[in-house]
Amino acid sequence: xxxNDTQQKPEDSIKRxxxxxxxxxxxxxxxxxxLFYVVFFAWNYGSSYGPVGADGRNLxxxxxxxxxxxxxxxxxxxxxxxxxxxxxxxxxxxxxxFPLLYRRWRRSLLGILPVGFLALVLSVFIEVxxxxxxxxxxxVDDVILNTIGGLIGxxxxxxxxxxxxxxxxxxx
Length: 172
Hints:
By secondary structure, this protein is mainly α. The protein contains 6 helices and 2 strands; from the N terminus they run H-E-H-H-H-H-E-H. It has one domain (12-171).
């Protein structure tokens, strides 16, 4: 008896699953490399709206202070848009790619909160390192905005999964 050509071998299924996972892993690594380049090495546009310490560092631990100062001292509307939205947009890929990469973070709507917490931890790591190892601003507002971006990304992932499930159900 001849095997049906449409039947898959188990190893073919495994190979198909590895390719998208490898692509997502590569995409996540490229995103993280880009993120670290931007936050540690790229030009520091519009970073400081306050007193600078004696060693050239700037630290803001008062929530929403720099957001207010950026808005208040900006010469036009586009400066705060670039700075504030940039901090949010910069972390949306993290929130979307992390649950895509790690199955355990995909479970439910409540999975958004742990991904948001990981975005917060990553942002704190970045801000602490910016303060100690670069001449950039360590800013609690950046942590807030980055965490919001991570939560938006995780929410978009959750929404995409729900829309995909709905599409698959209606396509049958």
